[in-house]
Amino acid sequence: MSSLLLFLTSVLLLHPVWTLDFRYHLNSEIEQYLIQTSKSNPNITHLYSIGKSVRGQELWVLALGVNPQRHVVGIPEFKYVANMHGNEVLGRELMLHLIEHLVQGYQNQEASILQLLRSTRIHILPSMNPDGFDEADTNCQYVQGRYNHNNVDLNRNFPDVFTDPQRQQLSEDQREAEVRAVMRWLRNETFVLSANLHGGALVASYAYDNGKGGSLQMGGASLTPDHDVFIHLSKEYSYNHASMHLGNSCQDSRPFRDGITNGYEWYPLAGGMQDYNYVWAQCLEVTLELSCCKFPPPDQLADLWNDNRKALLAYIRQVHLGVKGVVYDGSGVAAQDALVEVEGRKNICPFRTNSHGEYYRLLLPGNYTFTVMYPDHEVLTETLSIPYGPDSYSAATHNFRVT
Fold first, then answer.
1. Any idea which residues carry the catalytic annotation?
2. For 360-371, what is the mean pLDDT?
């Protein structure tokens, strides 16, 4: 048994399972907390598993919203994923306290929480790598527990559009169990916005993590067609955080202007989950490094929650940027898999409508020209004026009709 498990087991003698205080929780405790929360709040929560880890531990997700069990047309899907690296643990506890904050806010009829849960379906995966957590050491910098049970870094195991074709074409069943679970999850839900919670630095890092042509040379940024949106999303978190925006909080880290960085410019990374979300799942994801220490001392958890609480909520609201709607075909039927492109933003994999005919595009306020294409229909081009949606908890709504 690792030193972490010995420490946490001894703590259990003093703390009942159901008490969500500021300490580190075992995987079994997190499971019980999610089950209890879901059973106690069935009107706004839905607990489900996206799969199992290598050692057979469930990868539990709690969905929160006024329609938590299924997707509703016009309601965007948002997700937080924590503990991808098993020894980067702050995100696990932040996610538990975020769940508690949302549930209590709904029960207390807090206006901002009610608006958020009525307008958004929020999915929270507290631990993507429970096996790694079981092996983690409490050291701030060591890597023990970083990898999964097969000693694989999960944030290097996703398909990568920039690497050589042989790696890109690896069959899904050759990837790690936790990665396969997330890939299936992304196919089953139309996620619009996401964040991946890590530790070891204090910065919001945005796509791309890898560079064009698969080059792993240091220096220079690798920018997406939605670079302006990624900058905005990253700053939204860093400036709502107590100190991230200062950009120089960690002694052993380089300074980050505004507390943000392009992932590739920081250090190139092939096979990352962030790029996979954006390229293949049409989901804009930012990687949030939330603590200089990978395993902060338990007595710092309350302060770290207070540092991040406002930012975690503000970031979720950004799922309401831009425009959303449905594409209808010439018969007035919702058109699945219709291509919806924005002029000047040619994505590697073009954005397409989901099974409900919906599209979501996160865009800053301004005028944008859209091109909509659907087989056996004329190409449709329209220019839209898009306002800022997060303050009203809704993106602009515009439906397209192709003929």
1. 289
2. 98
